[in-house]
Amino acid sequence: MIPSVKLMLVLATVLGVLLIGIDSIDPYEDWWRQFEQKQEPCLGYCNLPSREGTPLMRQKRSNRGEHVFNNGLLGFHRSVLQKLLKLSDVGGYDEQLNNLVQDLMIPLSRTQQNAICTWVVRFSSGYVNDNADEYEDLVSQLREALVKYLKADTSVNEGGRNGIQELGQSVQNITSEMVNREVYVDKKARNRWLQKNPGRVQEYNQVRRALRDMFQNILQDFKKVSDKIRVFREEKQLDLGQ
């Protein structure tokens, strides 16, 4: 056989093997391995202010996959604080927002926050998160209830703290419902993730318990912030000569 022809056949054979090898690689699996190996929590993505969902937003699927735990959880505390500071009779402290955020006592470890961000799976078309609407509804209710409670708790006016016990109980009622139903867990995503990671059930339960404790004790998370805002309001009242 002519040497040049032999060379072409060899090259064609090698190229064919390479192409077959490339075609056999699942690009998602490669992305998944890299994603799971990240050591730093993706807080730049997750810890954004939560937005109240609309039916369109809730039906839109993530291009990055479906989270086992709703990743909006990490921005929830900040969203409550932002809403509180926007109230006309509480506001004026927007410039203090970043400082106040540092005083939020969010009881999730770095590892747990990382899990909320990175535990993701993918589904084929037709996937529906069955509890997405319920999660959005209860989170919205909890945000409103917390803002009402914190507004009363930071009040410096006579009678401003009236009914604070009932407001606190309203918060507890909502968080109890969230915990009992575990609406912040995507059950389908969880089941698939545990199928892929059967040896990490204990890790999953640790994060689940941490979220349960966070919601059950959520008023404590705002204690230090609430005290500071009360001082701000007292100073503002003095400045106005009231």
Task: Write a compact overview of the structure shown.
This protein has two domains: 1-37; 42-239, no CATH class. The protein has helices spanning 3-24, 27-37, 43-46, 55-59, 76-85, 97-101, 110-118, 132-153, 164-181, 187-196, 201-216, 218-221, 223-239, and strands at 66-67, 120-121. It is elongated and about 65 Å long.
Structure commentary:
The chain has helices at residues 3-24, 27-37, 43-46, 55-59, 76-85, 97-101, 110-118, 132-153, 164-181, 187-196, 201-216, 218-221, 223-239; strands spanning 66-67, 120-121. The protein is mainly α and 242 residues long. It folds into two domains: 1-37; 42-239, no CATH class. A two-stranded antiparallel ribbon has the order 1-2.
Categorize the overall geometry: elongated
Oligomerization category of the chains in this entry: single chain
List the uncertain runs. Answer: 5-62
H-E string: HHHHEHHHEHHHHHH
Task: Please identify the structural class as seen in this structure.
Answer: mainly alpha
Q: Provide the spatial order of strands within the biggest beta sheet.
A: 1-2
| Integer average pLDDT | 76
Distance between the termini: 104 Å
What's the helix count? Answer: 13
Q: Biggest β-sheet, characterized?
A: 2 strands, antiparallel
Rg over CA atoms: 25 Å
The percent of residues in helical segments reads 55-70%
